[in-house]
């Protein structure tokens, strides 16, 4: 089974996002539920973790993302650019 890593990148870019509320940085994680009314999955975001600083939130998102890719998949500053989309 071949894993399409570019497709996984697209999925991960939409899986997490960082929001600011009350001076804190909240990592939001996409989740799904099945709607009987529409008979399909609906997406929504739930609170994953809260951090006092943006740097802390970014580090946590990076750690979460790299778990879904092979070691050394992101070169140099590619991971930083990847995470900037989520802010």
Describe the protein's architecture and organization:
The chain is built from three helices and three strands, in the order αβββαα. The chain is of the alpha+beta class and 87 residues long. The chain has one domain. The chain has a three-stranded antiparallel beta sheet. β1 and β2 form a beta hairpin. The model has no long low-confidence stretch (mean pLDDT 87).
Question: What order do the helices and strands come in, and which of them pair?
Answer:
Layout: H1 5-13, E1 16-21, E2 24-35, E3 40-51, H2 54-66, H3 78-84
Antiparallel strand pairs: 1-2, 2-3
- The 3D shape can be described as flat
How many domains, in number, for the residues? 1
| Broad structural category | alpha+beta
- Order of strands in the sheet with most strands: 1-2-3
Mean pLDDT: 87
Share of helix, binned: 25-40%
How many strand units?
Answer: 3
Number of helices: 3
Rg computed from alpha carbons, rounded to a whole number of angstroms = 15 Å
Largest sheet: 3 strands, antiparallel
What is the rounded distance between the termini?
Answer: 33 Å
- Beta-strand fraction estimate: 25-35%
Q: Pick out the low-confidence regions.
A: none
- The helix-strand sequence is HEEEHH
Q: What are the key terms here?
A:
87 residues; alpha+beta; 3-stranded antiparallel beta sheet; 3 helices; 3 strands; 34% strand; flat
Structure at a glance:
This protein is an alpha+beta fold and 87 residues long.
């Amino acid at each position: 089974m071949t894993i399409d890593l570019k497709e996984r990148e697209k999925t991960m870019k939409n899986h997490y996002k960082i929001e600011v509320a009350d001076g804190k940085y909240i990592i939001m994680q996409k989740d799904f539920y099945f709607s009987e009314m529409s008979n399909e999955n609906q997406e929504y975001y739930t609170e994953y973790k809260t951090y006092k600083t943006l740097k802390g939130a970014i580090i946590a998102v990076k750690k979460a993302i790299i778990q879904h890719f092979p070691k050394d998949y992101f070169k140099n500053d590619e991971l930083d650019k990847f995470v900037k989309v989520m802010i």
